[in-house]
Amino acid sequence: MKLENFLDQHGVTYEKHRHGMTYTAQALAGAEHVSGYMVAKPVVVKTGSGFAMCVLPAPTHIELDRVAEVLNEPFARLATESEMAELFPDCELGAEPPIGQMFGLETIMDEQLEQDEHIWMQAGTHTDAVRVRREDWQRVCRPIIAPIARV
């Protein structure tokens, strides 16, 4: 499902932006001239129970031990590229929107993202981005909020 369709179905107002090719969340921040802390970076993890989508600010790094603890799992590891391709067949690899709900995945949001009114995200391609109100994003994602990232 396309991100715009999902947002429309859930009554989320958004701005779509087109930019030059970007392959990282931090590069997206640069292309859109915003702080990396306003860009929601998805990191998909595999646990003993399946997959989950972690969402953190672009310039931060995931704490896998903390994610496992939050999910009450014995371990959490990064999903492989082949697992990602299978989970997100309609997205360019590495450009999946940070909305686990779209893909049947639990979403865990790093608490640092609560500091901004709006967040930016990739829209399924390396050239499209979407800006949404963070509260609207949280409403559709229904994330677990926890400190899962470090600088």
Assembly category: single chain
Name of the CATH class: Alpha Beta
Kindly report the CATH topology.
YbaK protein
Order of helices and strands: HEHEEEHEHEEEHEE
CATH superfamily (homologous) name: YbaK/aminoacyl-tRNA synthetase-associated domain
| Strand portion | 25-35%
Number of E strands: 10
**C-alpha end-to-end distance:** 32 Å
Largest sheet: 5 strands, mixed
The radius of gyration computed from the alpha-carbon positions, rounded to a whole number of angstroms, is 14 Å
Quickly count the helices. Answer: 5
Structure write-up:
- The structure is a single chain.
- This protein has five helices and ten strands; from the N terminus they run H-E-H-E-E-E-H-E-H-E-E-E-H-E-E.
- By secondary structure, it is α+β, with helices and mostly antiparallel strands.
- A five-stranded mixed β-sheet has the order 5-2-3-6-9.
- Strand 2 and strand 3 form a beta hairpin.
- It is globular, with a radius of gyration of 14 Å.
- The N and C termini lie far apart (32 Å).
- The model has no long low-confidence stretch (mean pLDDT 96).
Short description:
This protein has helices spanning 3-9, 25-32, 64-70, 81-87, 134-141; strands spanning 14-18, 40-47, 50-57, 61-62, 76-78, 106-110, 118-122, 128-133, 144-146, 149-150.
